[in-house]
UniProtKB/TrEMBL annotation:
PROSITE patterns given in the database record: NOL1_NOP2_SUN, SAM_MT_RSMB_NOP
Organism classification: Bacteria, Pseudomonadati, Pseudomonadota, Alphaproteobacteria, Rhodospirillales
Binding site for S-adenosyl-L-methionine: D269, D316
PANTHER family, alphabetized: NOP2 YEAST -RELATED NOL1/NOP2/FMU SUN DOMAIN-CONTAINING (PTHR22807), RIBOSOMAL RNA SMALL SUBUNIT METHYLTRANSFERASE B-RELATED (PTHR22807:SF53)
Keyword DNA-binding annotated: no
Catalytic residues of the enzyme: C369 (nucleophile)
Entry keyword annotation includes Calcium: no
GO biological process, one term: methylation
Name the record gives this protein: 16S rRNA (Cytosine967-C5)-methyltransferase
Residue span(s) of domain SAM-dependent MTase RsmB/NOP-type: 155-434
Family, as annotated: Belongs to the class I-like SAM-binding methyltransferase superfamily. RsmB/NOP family.
């Protein structure tokens, strides 16, 4: 592809992303799948430019508006990117927008004016508001500031970077050193992660699909933060575990592997299709102790039938995903899932229902990939108010029991942030159900107090 043809592909791709209510990475995969004639070098170049533009969405939009252009169309964003970020001069830009075969159409009068207005500027500008500079959408500013305090700018800046590529070794098939060796045979170089004892951080972003260590299930792609959430579950071989919001099974895999294939992990989710896809990953990893179980909702009758049956219940709740913005730069601008007003009650309902599955002495682990207090600490505090038979088990205690070294904990919770831990933003709280006999432990749950059962409980 010529440089101009690559630019046209970027414009087409950005247009599809704007018009398709699906995450940008899914749109990109489909775009390239439907255009197999685009070679791998061109594909990488086009995807990189498109991602670079998505990461600069607010700043490019601010300049486009300042340049007097009507709206931030894909073409206007590409023009602004070439001028402000790549520092191309107007002559080069005009040459690329030649209208020739495969090249972008010639510039309109309005676009020409925009080029003149933006030429010789850089992306940063002293008059640019902070929220634009750090790419914070309006809806997230208040909760992000409230949650991050004086770390707002530094965390938001870190969220603008591309995430590193992390792998989790499958302890059934490899240890970190043997996995590093296997990967290096495919010219993939990795080193041990700082916090997760199962993690490797890869140098660069090499494609892994064809690599034996990956195909043979020695390693799985998983952010170090996500690995730490699985470690916070601290499951033991032989235990009964539920992953209540298992989704594509990332944490289920880690939990099941920690159990050395012994015991049982029930992988639940309301999206049966996701669980089906996850089953393929479970097979590749050689894990036989996972049982997918689709739910109709968090109140599925299965929950009641299995109350107090499980040693560990992980709730990796649906959330704003603010901790994963490095990975999904478009997510902050495109509300593709439910908003906070729907997520907050849903998280509380899921937590409340999943808690019923936990046996006395067992643990409920509530986790999100959010950095917002309302979705994290506030949910846990509200839960503890109404579930007095649960207490917080400090993450430092869990790490000490697991001999996992120093935990990246702050207070009793796991609170990971990109700037401090170089992981995605994650939160996890470990809540233990009291083991001692009391009224509520004797078979009566707070949400279903029945006078007959209550009598039996008192007798018992
Ligand atoms: C953060 S994602 C889980 C990611 C997954 N644990 C992983 O590590 O790959 C949240 C999941 O919760 C699921 N979910 C949404 N509403 C739910 C509900 N009411 N009950 C159970 N799961 C639900 C979503 O379908 C989604 O897969």
């Amino acid at each position: 592809m010529t440089p101009a043809a690559r630019l046209q592909a970027v414009i087409d791709l950005l247009t599809e992303i704007d018009e398709t209510p699906r995450p940008a990475d899914a749109v990109m995969s489909a775009y390239f799948r439907n255009r197999r004639y685009i070679g791998s070098k061109d594909r990488t170049a086009v995807a990189q430019t498109a991602y670079a533009i998505l990461r600069r969405h607010a700043r490019l939009g601010w300049w486009i508006e300042r340049g007097g252009y009507e709206r931030p169309t894909p073409r206007a964003r590409v023009l602004a990117f070439l001028l402000l970020e790549e520092r191309r001069n107007a002559g080069v830009v005009l040459e690329m927008f030649s209208g020739g075969k495969f090249a972008p159409a010639r510039l309109t009068d309005g676009e020409l004016e925009l080029v003149q207005a933006l030429e010789s500027h850089t992306l940063d500008h002293p008059e640019m508001p902070e929220t634009v500079r750090v790419e914070c959408p309006d809806w997230a500013e208040r909760p992000m500031r409230a949650s991050l305090g004086d770390r707002f700018a530094v965390e938001m800046e870190k969220l603008l970077e591309a995430a590193p590529l992390d792998l989790r070794i499958n302890p059934l098939k490899a240890n970190r050193q043997s996995a590093i060796k296997a990967l290096s045979k495919a010219q993939i170089f990795a080193e041990e992660t700082q916090w997760s004892p199962l993690g490797l951080r890869v140098k660069g972003r090499p494609p892994l699909g064809g690599v034996d260590a990956f195909k043979d299930g020695l390693v799985e792609i998983q952010d170090e933060g996500s690995q730490l959430v699985a470690l916070a579950v601290a499951p033991k071989p032989g235990q009964q575990v539920v992953d209540f919001c298992a989704g594509a099974g990332g944490k289920t895999l880690a939990v099941a592997a920690l159990m050395k294939n012994k015991g049982r992990v029930v992988a639940c989710d309301v999206l049966a299709g996701r669980l089906k896809r996850a089953a393929e990953r479970f097979r590749r990893a050689g894990l036989h102790n996972i049982e997918p179980h689709p739910l109709t909702s968090e109140r599925d009758p299965w929950v009641k039938r299995h109350k107090r049956k499980f040693d560990r219940v992980l709730v990796d709740a649906p959330c704003s995903g603010t901790g994963t913005w490095r990975r999904n730069p478009d997510a902050r601008w495109r509300q593709l899932g439910p908003g906070l007003e729907q997520l907050l009650p849903l998280q509380a309902n899921i937590l409340d229902s999943a808690a019923r599955l936990v046996k006395p002495g067992g643990r409920l682990v509530y986790a999100t990939c959010s950095m917002l207090h309302d979705e994290n600490e506030a949910q846990v505090e509200a839960f503890l108010q109404t579930h007095t038979d649960f207490i917080v088990k400090p993450v430092a205690d869990v790490w000490a029991e697991e001999e996992a070294g120093a935990p990246p904990a702050e207070g009793p919770y796991l609170r990971l942030t990109p700037a401090r831990h170089d992981t995605d933003g994650f939160f996890a709280a470990v809540l233990e159900r009291r083991a001692e006999e009391s009224l509520s432990e004797a078979g009566v749950e707070q949400d279903e107090v029945d006078p007959v059962e209550l009598g039996k409980a008192i007798d018992a």
